[in-house]
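Recall that a protein's primary structure is simply its ordered list of amino acids. Everything else, from secondary elements to tertiary packing, is in principle encoded there. The following example makes that idea concrete.
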Amino acid sequence: MKRTFSLLLACAMIATLLAACVPVSSPPSPSAPSTPSTSDPTKAPDKGTATQTPTKPAEKPAKISVEIFDRGNAGGSKPEDNYYTDFIKRGMLRDHNVEVTFVAVPRWTEVDVLNNLLAAGDAPDVCVTYSYPTIQTYANMGGVLDMAPYLEEYKSQLTNMWDLLGDENIYYNQDPTTGTVWAIEALRYINTRINTFVREDWLKKLNMSEPTNIEEFETMLKAFKDNASTLLGKDAGKMIPFSTSFDVGWRCNNLLMSFVPDNLSDKEFYVLGFDDRQLQLPGVKEAVRKLNQWYNEGLMWDDFALYGEGDDTEDNLIRAGYVGSIIHNWDVPYSGAEQGIHSNLQKLVGPEAAFIAVNPFKNDAGKYKKVLYSTVDRKVFFPSTNKEPVASLMYIDWISTFENRNFLQIGEEGVTHKVLEDGTVQTISSRDDKIMNSTNNIDYTITINGLDMGSPEKSAKSLALGYAGVDKRYIESSFAAALKDGFIIKNFNVGEIKSEEGMGQALKVKRDNLYAQAITCPVAQFDAVWDAGYQDYLDSGAQAIQDERKAAYEKYYE
């Protein structure tokens, strides 16, 4: 059956036609739902006491496989086999009589690898991805299980999942016509997204204030370049005033958004919103023109477009102290513990060396408007080869239980965190078998992204203390800067947009190439390069997506 299904999918990918649907065998009866714990969440759960009591466990355990991201980080543990996977395996076997096997998928190429696994019929029973178009593509080929009937039938036994995610995230992708649910959405608990960072010590050396607008930011970049000898000494030739990566749409997003009109409507954001890097929004071209100017004036890293996903060349340049400013994930200079940017700057440059978050990009209304994460994060789905959908749902419920996810987020007291007098927790950097491969183990807590200590106040205080070796003032400043004038792009549930099917990766490549080519071309060629590349992007499928999104929005919301 598996071989047949694989062949069907392979043919469907070529012809984009498939009518067959793989049947799902009847699942075993689920065990009883989890019971909310009243124990101290900062303590490791008792390994000998069940947090949940199954009613009539099957004599033979159900078996499921679960996808786990492999970040390939230096000094980490095997993502599919470590202290935390053992904790999960013991808990699922004890509480639900389910054996769990983890399948590692490279984080930075997860979409490509997942595509291959789905096409071959070898995908794990519980899959995780950031790409909903990938899920939709395989759903249309019969390769994804409709979760709706299981969610309805077993809702009373999924109370932990429901309490955490609510109807908003569980039914976020439900088709308004057919009622199908191909995936549920994890909760984005902390929705800070992107910040602009500058070297605080360089500003002090040059007696400059933090930039508050783009003109001051540009002046700062020129000052860094002109004073390279003062700032870097014998390494002056390695000066990079501003750095970005090949993923310009993400890494320069705060700058891009500052050129977008403040009065853009929710409808326009939706119609032009297939690309989550905001390429199609009005004003973005002029933002890229500014980057083109900086590049040609020698204010940017020359080689930003040469290194792809997962490459650490740029990170190494930043760690070495050659870079004056970046736009990046809201906390990236402070994460990574001993392998991180902050720690390396402190060791290589000195205790005064550090990045600080600033807000220099105002829009036409004088706001530092920036896109925040919505309430949704990763998408969790079951391929149609999953023969244990109920056991898989029990897994999602177990991982959503506060006691379980809290332990995974903070680890063991005295090893990966310590508890302060006010009840907040402070992260301790661990290099033993209890090291976390991702911040707060988000790769295991697949239904939540962001530290949750049971209350917003306690969570915020703990968050500021959660960066080993970093003064909490940097985290507090960065958190506030990332939220200032931030907004969430509104979701409109209009069902499937057919023209989006299979276009995610193809348009992503064209988008990244367009950004890179438009920034690196001579100033005099900018308009020609941008206009030709953008028209190609539209002709390659983006225009059809815009048109269908517009029609769908007007059908359901006007």
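The domain at 194-371+465-557 is CATH 3.40.190.10 (D-Maltodextrin-Binding Protein; domain 2). The mean pLDDT is 89.
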